[in-house]
């Protein structure tokens, strides 16, 4: 990236983006500059489960996940990943509070990296006990049934707005658009974990 990102909005604000030739850059120039330099695709939350076509593509990938899909990283089995994702969606839509590890750092910087930067999510991040299948999460029972339940939960979550979703345990309160992007990114992350 040829610029410095010195704000948590996710968009560069410096004049080193080229094309400014030393002139002062006004904030209202920012959308034009992002578009000219291809930064829109890098920083905007394009993938979202609220979009029917993107949701259908994600669900088609989920159908390709098999009990014997090879793990690329981590400890979860494909079946545990399905239950983990189901627990995550279910808990976010529940009125029962989830244990929080949110800090000012995680609600700003980590949230920006996870939801606005476009960077891949890191592997091996410790999950909350409520959604860890080896601690307090739902135990895998029958693969096809559990996958079908996850599909239903994704559909329900896609119809929700931020006021009907509790705060994220690490990122805090999110906008509806951020929640829909989180749903896509979290599911995508675990599908990629198994090469799907």
- Mean pLDDT score: 80
Work out the count of structural domains.
2
Helix/strand order, N-terminal first:
HHHHHHH
Tell me the number of helical segments per DSSP (H or I, 4 or more residues long). 7
What fraction of the residues are assigned to beta strands by DSSP? under 5%
Largest sheet: none
Outline the low-pLDDT stretches.
1-43
Straight-line distance between termini: 28 Å
Q: Which structural category fits the helices and strands?
A: mainly alpha
- Label the overall shape: globular
In helices, the fraction of residues equals: 40-55%
Number-wise, the strands total 0
The gyration radius over C-alpha positions equals: 19 Å
What does this structure look like?
- By secondary structure, this protein is mostly helical.
- It folds into two domains: 1-44, no CATH class; 52-192, no CATH class.
- The protein is built from seven helices and no strands.
- It has helices at residues 30-36, 39-43, 52-64, 78-93, 104-116, 143-158, 176-192.
- Helix 3 runs antiparallel to helix 6 (143-158), helix 4 (78-93) runs parallel beside helix 6 (143-158) and helix 4 (78-93) runs antiparallel to helix 7.
- Mean pLDDT is 80; it is low at 1-43.
């Amino acid at each position: 990236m040829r610029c410095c990102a010195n704000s948590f909005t996710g968009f560069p604000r410096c004049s080193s983006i080229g094309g400014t030739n030393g002139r002062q850059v006004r904030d209202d120039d920012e959308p034009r500059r992002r578009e000219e330099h291809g930064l829109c695709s890098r920083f905007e939350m394009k993938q979202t489960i609220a979009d029917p076509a993107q949701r259908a593509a994600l669900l088609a990938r989920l159908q390709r996940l098999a009990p014997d899909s090879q793990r690329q990283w981590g400890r979860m089995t494909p079946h545990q990943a399905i239950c983990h994702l189901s627990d995550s969606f279910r808990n976010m839509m529940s009125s029962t509070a989830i244990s929080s590890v949110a800090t000012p750092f995680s609600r700003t910087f980590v949230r920006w990296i996870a939801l606005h930067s476009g960077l891949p999510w890191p592997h091996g991040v410790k999950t909350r006990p409520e959604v860890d299948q080896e601690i307090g999460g739902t135990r895998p029972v029958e693969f096809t049934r559990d996958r079908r339940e996850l599909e239903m939960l994704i559909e329900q979550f896609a119809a929700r707005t931020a006021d009907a979703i509790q705060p994220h345990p690490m990122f805090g309160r999110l906008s509806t658009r951020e929640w829909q992007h989180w749903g896509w990114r979290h599911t995508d992350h675990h599908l990629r974990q198994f090469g799907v």
